[in-house]
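During the practical work, I selected for study one protein's amino acid sequence and its backbone structure tokens, as given directly below:
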Amino acid sequence: MNEAHLIIGLGNPGAKYEGTRHNVGFLALDRLAEQWGGTWSEEKFFKARMSRVTVRQGNIHLCQPQTYMNLSGESVGAVCDYFRIAARKILVIVDDAELAFGQLRMRAGGSSGGHNGLGSVEQCLATEDYLRLRIGVGRPPEEAGMAGYVLGKLSPEELLNMAQTLEVVLQQCECWLQHGAASAMNEFNGKLDFSDKKTDKDIIE
């Protein structure tokens, strides 16, 4: 793993959007930075929060675009151009309301599937051939609109389940870096079982 890798988490900046379903990508990057000892810095040149870490002797750039979701590609393109990172070394982590809550789907290439953040990344990179990891946030109730749902806050139970999900995301990312995308997809793609999750009491103790 000699070449630098880039992992991007998509979301919207600002306190208004913290803890929302659409910001699951940001939450995932925060967990990776925490595990790998990264510190965040605001880098206006890239219109992003950036963290640089070393994992298994390889350099990893972590990126949270601060352009708002629909313009995420501006940040991703700038980072890739500056550090000369090839598309095959990129992983983009996003929320997906078409997947059951906590379901993980890593895939190499493919369309944006209507996700505006991925659409912006594809436009700026001029390719669909990069790895993406979709984290399921579940479909909204029938009475709720999609926009309001994904921009809504995760419930306390969802936060507990998402914390468990992000531990698996961490393992999947490390598997990708060490063994490649095929191994990471085969081992970790699928729906998680939250029946044995910790309670608030367990966490406090």
About this structure: The first strand starts at residue 5 and ends at 9. The first helix runs from residue 24 to 36. The two ends are 39 Å apart (CA to CA). DSSP finds seven helices and seven strands in the chain.
